[in-house]
Amino acid sequence: MIASMTGFGKGIAEGDVGRVIVEMRSVNGRYGDVIVRMPRSLSELESRIKERVLSVFTRGRLDVSITLQGTASEQGLPVLKPEILSAYLKGIEEIRADISGDIDLMQIAQLPQIFAFEIPELDSEALWKVVSVALSQAIDACRAMCLAEGEKLARDLHTRILVLNKFLQRVEELAPERVETVRTRLEEKLAQLLTPEQIDESRLLMEIALLADRSDITEECVRFHSHNAQFLDMLDRKEAVGRRLNFLLQEMLREANTMGSKAGDATIAHVVVDIKEEIEKLKEQIQNIE
Question: How many angstroms separate the CA atoms of 262 and 222, rounded?
């Protein structure tokens, strides 16, 4: 089953290191790009996080946001800065005569830079144990959304391929009539230029046959049918097929352009325009397929 590249998932896990919340969003992207936003205390886990995500997703931009709650690691532990405190106290003593009222301890403690917040070093394996649980939850939820969206896309793509097949069948129905049209046009032109005695019937038939051969679109129709069949087959595969589907659509467009240029028939040309419009709609849809 094909998967969309648009999804969202969230995971929450708790352990000795605190509470970990992971949110994951995926959007369209040509490659597998993982962007991780997290506290500095988790930075050494970045490679593991990316590896876990890319083991499930092969394409798209994947944004992973991690929050760590319930521990001192959020902003760090307060550490008194004696030299700064001494400087404040010295300044207070110098201006005490001009200060009315008392200055209590809490007021001093709230002065800027009296305390610094130092983030303690946490055990990376203990962190990973909790992060990996929340990450797996987020990945599973995001993947489920991508697959659900992919199922909808697959139904729409399948319907559009059936529409293409109908257009192609119409072209195949019109193709044989082209030879008779060519014969009629040639006879009319020759009648304008030559008398009936001057027209070589065998030469006329040969020219018609050569023209019909040069404008034959049987091979293009056969290849187009083959591309359609491959497209439908890929919709049922489990691996990522977005790039392959895009390549097939390029080949379909190539065949349609060739049919339009070789046919030399206004009715067929109109059907070819319809085919190309449907291919463009397909191309827009598969931009969101992994």
Answer: 15
Please name the amino acid found at residue 72: A
What is d(CA 43, CA 178) in angstroms, rounded to the nearest whole number?
Answer: 69
Which residues have CB under 8 Å from 83's CB, separation 6+?
none
Q: Which helix (H) or strand (E) holds 168?
A: helix 124-193
Dihedral of CA atoms 85, 90, 93, 94 in degrees, nearest 10, equals -140
Q: How far apart are CA 234 and CA 224, in angstroms?
A: 15
Q: Which of 166, 163, 157 is nearest to 244 (CA)?
A: 157
Rg over CA atoms, the chain: 36
Residue identified by tokens 């369209």 is 28
Q: Within 196-265, where are the H helices? A: 201-214, 218-234, 242-263
Q: Pick the residue with more confidence: 67 or 174?
A: 67
- pLDDT tens for each residue of 70-100: 654 555 566 667 777 677 677 766 666 666 6
Q: Record the pTM.
A: 0.70
Angle between helices 218-234 and 242-263 (to 10 degrees): 160
Question: What's the chain's length in residues?
Answer: 290
